[in-house]
Amino acid sequence: MKSISGYTFSLGSGIFSWASKKQATVAQSSAEAEYIAAAATSNHAIWFRRILEDLGEKQEDPTTIYCDNKSSIAITKNPVQHSRTKHIDIKYHSLREATTRGEIELKYCSTEEQLADIY
Predict the structure, then answer these.
(1) Domain extents for the chain?
(2) Residue 72 and residue 101: Cα distance in Å, rounded?
(3) Which among 91, 95, 116, 118 has most CB atoms closer than 10 A?
(4) Closest by alpha carbon to 16, among 40, 62, 51?
(5) How do the pLDDT tens digits run along the chain, 119 residues long?
(6) Which domain of life is it from (predicted)?
């Protein structure tokens, strides 16, 4: 069964963008599903960063994405392909590149505090 990805973006105290979408592939683990969701979220975050920069608001600090799966955060931080992650489609590894460039920072957030889990 395909997983559902969801995200919310907020600026200050207001949410300005949100989405919920069925993932294109069937994840083999919850870590993979969360990693795919974080990758999709990072693509939108980078797009929002570019818009802010075009408006003259240079983004000095990375955009924080909160994730409630420590294994998916570990996949992002470890570029070595392991037997458990080698099947993940390469297009999702843009998340690793964005964290390496300092545009995105993945932080752990407990499931109870994860706003996007309403999707």
Answers:
(1) 4-118
(2) 18
(3) 95
(4) 51
(5) 899 988 999 988 899 999 999 998 888 888 888 988 999 999 999 999 999 999 999 999 999 999 988 988 988 887 666 666 666 766 777 888 899 999 999 999 887 777 666 55
(6) Eukaryota
Whole-model pTM? 0.81
Output the DSSP codes for 37-56.
HHHHHHHHHHHHHHHHHHTT
What does DSSP say about strands 14-22 and 4-11: parallel, antiparallel, or unpaired?
antiparallel
Dihedrals phi, psi of 76, to nearest 5 degrees: -65, -40
DSSP state of 101: T
User: In this structure, what token pair is assigned to residue 75?
Assistant: 């996949």
Residue with tokens 């300005």: 16
Round to the nearest angstrom and report the end-to-end CA distance of the chain: 16
